[in-house]
Design a protein that fits this description.
about 250 residues; alpha/beta; Rossmann fold; six-stranded parallel beta sheet; 8 strands
Amino acid sequence: MASDLKTRVRDGWQDTLRSILEQARSLGSRAVLAFDLDSTLFDNRPRQVRILREFGQSRALEKLRACEPHHWESGFDMRGAMRNCGLSAAEIEAHFEAARSFWQQRFFTNEYCVDDVAIQGAAAFTHAVVATGAHLAYVTGRHEGMRAGTVDCMRRNGLALPSEGRVHLLMKPSEHDNDDAFKRTAHARLGDLGTLIAAFDNEPTHANDYLRRFPEAKVVHLATDHSGRPVVLLDEIVSVPHFSHEP
């Protein structure tokens, strides 16, 4: 599914990014742009790699200890990553549940999220948004317990940082809150800031929700990876591979 969505990227996608910045400049502080974090502004594969390597270390699985980012080509598919590392089907089934538990204890933490790296052009694009005078809202399914690590990772990767000004970081109150429900409630908070003119997300469900709630906005899908749910993107949504949009 993730690879299929990458085929939606069409020639001229850079024009969409440029036109969004032009509109933001024309509206200034009245404009709001919303960005997801994981697989939208950040590539999570270094975090995934670290966890699977550490699991391999803990179980003396040498093939997992050699895990690399390209082994996570199927997004969040751990079975696929284990297979790409060289484990047999029987080995995967023997270790998957323990690996999944090991992952769940680490992935949504400050200690591990600092390993993320910015998607190509993401840092520069966030600063370009800030330079227009618009509001930039990071709207993420990460929970508040990850705020410190998230901001540290933003700083390390050169993204515009949340502040008391026009850069905002909206996070789930609790790790156990549903991502879809949280993002839908965040829509009202975005409306309070001004006029949402653009939203960026890698998850088809969330991109579709943005367009349904804000039909006048330009919704942009990051064709990176996603959860794998069989959701069809609405036709009006533009897919882009990254944020480097200059000719």
